[in-house]
Amino acid sequence: MRLPWNIILRFVLIAAALVAIAAPLFPSLMGRANITQPIAFNHKKHAGELSLPCTTCHQSVEAQTFAGLPQTETCLTCHAAALTKNPEEEKIRQFASKKEMILWKRVYQVPRDVFFSHRRHVVLAKVECATCHGKMAEQITPPTRPLVNQTMTWCISCHQERRASVDCNACHK
After folding, report:
1. 74 and 63 in contact (C-beta within 8 Å)?
2. Which pLDDT tens digit goes with each residue over 59-82?
3. Which residue, among 108, 95, 35, 33, has the nearest Cα to 68 in the 3D structure?
4. Band of the pLDDT at 32, cuts 50, 70, 90?
5. SS3 call for 149
6. Is the N or C terminus of the chain more exposed, i.e. has fewer CB atoms within 10 Å?
7. Rounded to whole angstroms, how far apart are CA atoms 156 and 161?
8. How far apart are CA 167 and CA 77, in angstroms?
9. Does residue 28 register a pLDDT over 90?
10. Who wins on pLDDT, 56 or 21?
11. What separation in angstroms does the CA of 7 have from each of 1, 17, 74, 133?
C-alpha cells in the first residue's frame, strides 16, 4: 500500500520543523555545542604578551599522546598569590582551597577511530601548536569551539605537504 504524497510531505515538514526547533535547544546533538570553561583563561595574556610556551600549561605535549589540561597546581605555580584583581584569577585559588581540580572541557575532539599523538606531531614532526589549534595566542577568552576545522581532508593535506604517511592505518585504528 502506498501512502498519499500529502501525508509524506506533512511528515517531512514536521520532521524538519522538529529539527529546526531542537537545534538551538540541543546544540551538542547537532555537532556544534558551545563550550564554557570553568575559568575564562586569557591565552593572549599568557601565550601572547608573556610569551609562555604552550608546554607551560599543557605539560604532557612532549611526552605523551595527550597534551594534557592544566592541573590546579600548575596554575598555582604563578597564581598562588594574587597578581591581578581579575576574578578569574581568584577562581584558581578557590579551586585550590577546596582541593578541587579545575575541570577544563576539551574543545578539540578527534573521532574515536582516529589515533592522534601530540608527542608524535610536536616533538618528532616539529608541528607548531598553532597549525592545528589556530591563533590561540590571540584569544582573550577561551574559544567556545575549535578555531581550526580539523577534517580528514585537512589532515591529509598537511600530511602530504610534510611528506608524512597518508596510509589509512597510520591514523585510523
Report:
1. no
2. 999 999 999 999 999 999 999 999
3. 108
4. low
5. coil
6. N
7. 9
8. 42
9. no
10. 56
11. 13, 15, 61, 47
Could you say which DSSP state residue 166 is in?
Answer: -
For the record, the C-alpha cell of 99 comes out as 582541593
The per-residue DSSP string of 109-131 comes to: ---TTB---HHIIIIIS---HHH
Q: Give CA–CA dist 121/125, Å, rounded.
A: 5
Please determine, for residue 131, whether its predicted confidence score (pLDDT) is greater than 70: yes
On whether the CB atoms of residues 76 and 86 are closer than 8 A, the answer is no
Q: How far is CA 166 from CA 90, 118, 146, in A?
A: 46, 17, 23
Query: With bands split at pLDDT 50, 70 and 90, how would you rate the model's confidence at 24?
Result: low
